[in-house]
């Protein structure tokens, strides 16, 4: 299709959203049709397909089994760390999911109940998610790289009835025991959920009698459970993401809008057809994993790949190309950091020609800004369009992208494409004035947002309004800064809050600072994100010690690094900190984190007039240089 077709479709999506998404909703099977496509008056934000009823698991599995895809591969599990590959047909996956829904139901889970899933990248994680959807229960997946405290916060916040976990994960060649982390979380937790544990063959976890149940034993006792219809506006899942405090935000995804939007994206954005193989090399603990390992491809009748391993080291930097070739992947989605890791080890792409990637058509990137150099390298090495697209946990799908199924896109390096249909983007100045093309400001979406975008936060309507809707009335504030160029392409440049992106993982520096200040010797601290050639950004901490601190500077640094690992988890990649005498501050006492980050990146910076003591800045510069920054 042509560019003008895209323009026309985009306009209709904004001018007649009810017609546009109402037509897309015909692709989903409903047990009861909706009364209203869009209820703009709903509080705190608009709701889609009000009054409609459906079951997301039915649409992802049963519908395909009944419609002739029973023997088609639904899920290919490919573990580079164990060497195992297993394919589930749609029938097999449906049967496993129905049985595990029976397990959950035997353990008291029904419609609306919450289930936390803390799992490595194994099929049982997907089965557990879909089993919740089948029952009308609400899953909340917690990424395996989070430590016990983060897990406990999430279990408590959503008041989980059941936690599903496994004995271990595997990080390249290290076995990570999950069960002790879960046990520690439950010691901290106020609730006492039942646990269902999948025992992997490489490690058997100790079980706590009365509380813990064995996955296999439970499956042997359970009867398959049918799909329970739910309201389109009922929650399908809660996914916690970093906020500006240690208390994460529970992003809610509804059932109806989510199913409609995700099914629509598979063709319109990714240009993938049913029966083709789609692979998102992410983790089910992140939104990309929810949307494009599990729901999107299955709703569309594709084969999805669940890959357990890293882009490098399992066994080498050709791992991704091996998967694409072996499973005949048509389209792939990953984070730029993965490509940087591959490029570091195979700069000339020498491993690529070893693999037949003739069916591979496109590579999509998100999670962080893709630097033009990595984009150009990938395009050159792979010979397919490499598309940077921008989205957030909050939206569940792309806010801006090249839409391969509608468009003949021009890839503009440094941009993440044009606003996707349904997204009316504007750039706002500090006074709430709309900026002109090319001017940098706050990227905002005019309300209502399209289907699948968060309707609110779990048990926190007020926080939802305060965080996203109050700075610019009538708009959703993305908390990303950037500009839209003369041709309508969106350039996302940085966050406007304290969030940093570490290897495509989203972290709050405020939450890290809370952990650092909990150390008895720390008077105050600042954590900033500094550029890293592999991970994009990494957090670096600056500590001011209390007078009469018990530990030496070296001891405190060692302590806080260990503390972040045990309190937040290894995913924080917090390895560098330094003790300084004072931190640079404004006259009103605000720590100048931006100034520190700029020194770390060696970007031009001017000493703010309020910092009248250049010694502080020299001290920060020296501390950074001992830690190897700028890199
Ligand atoms: N369970 C337990 N630990 C985990 C984990 C999990 N699921 N995932 C990561 N970790 C650990 C890692 O082992 C590492 O520990 P270490 O400090 O002891 O080495 C730490 O958390 C940091 O992990 P990560 O940031 O992933 O770094 P890495 O060096 O292991 O790998 C990359 C770097 C770039 C290869 C890797 O981050 C990657 O593939 N990223 C892609 C990102 C992605 O999928 N993003 C989702 C959006 S698309
Ligand atoms: P997450 O919620 O973990 O998906 O992270 C969302 C954040 O990642 C966004 O708000 C951006 O800051 C960043 N991000 C995601 N995709 C892109 C992209 N294509 N370009 C720039 N930043 C991105």
Q: What's the CATH topology label of the domain at 89-228?
A: Rossmann fold
DSSP strand content: 15-25%
- Bound small-molecule species: coenzyme A, adenosine monophosphate
The helix tally amounts to: 18
| CATH architectural designation of the domain at 89-228 | 3-Layer(aba) Sandwich
Q: List segments where confidence is low: pLDDT < 50 over at least 5 consecutive residues.
A: none
Q: End-to-end span in angstroms? A: 44 Å
Question: Which descriptors apply to this entry?
Answer:
631 residues, alpha/beta, Rossmann fold, GMP Synthetase, Chain A, domain 3, seven-stranded mixed β-sheet, five-stranded parallel β-sheet, 32 strands, 32% helix, globular, binds coenzyme A, binds adenosine monophosphate
Structure write-up:
- The structure is a single chain.
- With 631 residues, the chain is α/β, with parallel strands linked by helices.
- The strands form 10 sheets. Strands 5-4-17-16-18-19-20 form a 7-stranded mixed beta sheet, with helices on both faces. A 5-stranded parallel beta sheet has the order 7-6-8-11-12, with helices on both faces.
- Strand 9 (168-171) and strand 10 (174-177) form a beta hairpin.
- The radius of gyration is 24 Å and the shape is globular.
- The protein binds coenzyme A (COA) and adenosine monophosphate.
- Coenzyme A (COA) binds at residues 144-145, 169, 171, 176, 282-283, 286, 288, 310-312, 334-335, 337-338, 341, 366-367, 503-504, 534, 570-571, 573.
- The site of coenzyme A (COA) has 25 residues, from strand 9 and helix 12.
């Amino acid at each position: 299709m042509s560019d003008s077709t895209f323009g026309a479709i985009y306009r209709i999506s904004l001018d007649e959203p009810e017609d546009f998404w109402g037509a897309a909703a015909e692709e989903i099977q409903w047990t009861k049709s909706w009364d209203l496509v869009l209820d703009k008056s709903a509080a705190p934000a608009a709701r889609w397909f009000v009054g409609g009823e459906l079951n997301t698991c039915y649409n992802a599995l049963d519908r395909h089994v009944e419609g002739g895809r029973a023997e088609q591969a639904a899920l290919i599990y490919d573990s580079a760390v164990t060497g195992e590959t297993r394919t589930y047909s749609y029938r097999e996956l449906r049967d496993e999911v129905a049985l595990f829904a029976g397990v959950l139901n035997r353990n008291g889970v029904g419609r609306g109940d919450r289930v936390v899933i803390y799992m490595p990248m194994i099929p049982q994680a997907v089965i557990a998610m879909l089993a919740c959807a089948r029952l009308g229960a609400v899953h909340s997946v917690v990424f395996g790289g989070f430590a016990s405290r983060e897990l406990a916060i999430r279990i408590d916040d959503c008041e989980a009835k059941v936690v599903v976990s496994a004995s271990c994960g595997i990080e390249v060649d290290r076995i990570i025991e999950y069960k002790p982390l879960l046990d520690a979380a439950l010691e901290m937790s106020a609730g006492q959920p039942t646990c269902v544990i999948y025992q992997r063959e490489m490690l058997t976890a100790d079980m706590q009698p009365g509380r813990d149940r064995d996955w296999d034993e439970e499956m042997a006792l359970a009867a398959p459970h049918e799909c329970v219809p739910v309201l389109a506006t009922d929650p399908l899942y809660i996914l916690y993401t970093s906020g500006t405090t240690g208390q994460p935000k529970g992003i809610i995804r509804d059932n109806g809008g989510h199913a409609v939007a995700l099914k629509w994206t598979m063709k319109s954005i990714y240009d993938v057809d049913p029966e083709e193989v789609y692979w998102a090399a992410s983790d089910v603990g992140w939104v990309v994993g929810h949307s494009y390992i599990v729901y999107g491809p299955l709703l569309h009748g594709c084969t999805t790949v669940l890959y357990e391993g890293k882009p490098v080291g399992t066994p080498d930097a050709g791992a991704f190309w091996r998967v694409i070739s072996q499973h005949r992947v048509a389209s792939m989605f990953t984070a730029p950091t993965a490509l940087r890791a591959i490029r570091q080890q195979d700069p000339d792409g020498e491993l690529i020609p070893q693999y037949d990637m003739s069916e591979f058509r496109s590579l999509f990137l998100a999670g962080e800004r893709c630097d033009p150099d990595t984009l150009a390298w990938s395009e050159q090495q792979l010979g397919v369009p490499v598309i940077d697209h921008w989205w957030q946990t909050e939206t569940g799908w792309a806010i801006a992208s090249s839409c391969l199924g509608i468009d003949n896109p021009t890839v503009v390096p440094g941009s993440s494409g044009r606003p996707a249909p349904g997204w009316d983007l504007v750039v706002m100045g500090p006074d709430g004035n709309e900026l002109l093309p090319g001017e940098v400001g706050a990227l905002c979406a005019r309300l209502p947002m399209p289907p699948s975008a968060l309707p609110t936060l779990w048990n926190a309507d007020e926080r939802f309004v305060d965080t996203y809707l109050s700075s610019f009335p009538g708009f959703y504030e993305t908390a990303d800064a950037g500009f839209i160029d003369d041709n309508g392409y969106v350039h996302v440049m940085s966050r406007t809050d304290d969030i940093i992106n570490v290897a495509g993982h989203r972290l709050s520096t405020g939450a890290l600072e809370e952990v650092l200040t909990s150390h008895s010797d720390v008077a105050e601290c600042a954590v900033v994100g500094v550029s890293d050639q592999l991970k994009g950004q990494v957090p670096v901490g600056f500590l001011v010690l209390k007078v009469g601190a018990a530990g030496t500077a070296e001891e405190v640094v060692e302590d806080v690094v260990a503390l972040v690992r045990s309190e937040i988890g290894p995913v924080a990649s917090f390895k560098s900190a330094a003790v300084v005498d004072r931190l640079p501050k404004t006259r009103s006492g605000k720590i100048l984190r931006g100034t520190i980050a700029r020194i770390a990146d060696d970007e031009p910076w001017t000493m703010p007039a309020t910092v009248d003591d250049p010694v502080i800045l020299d001290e920060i510069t020296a501390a950074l240089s001992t830690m190897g920054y700028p890199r």
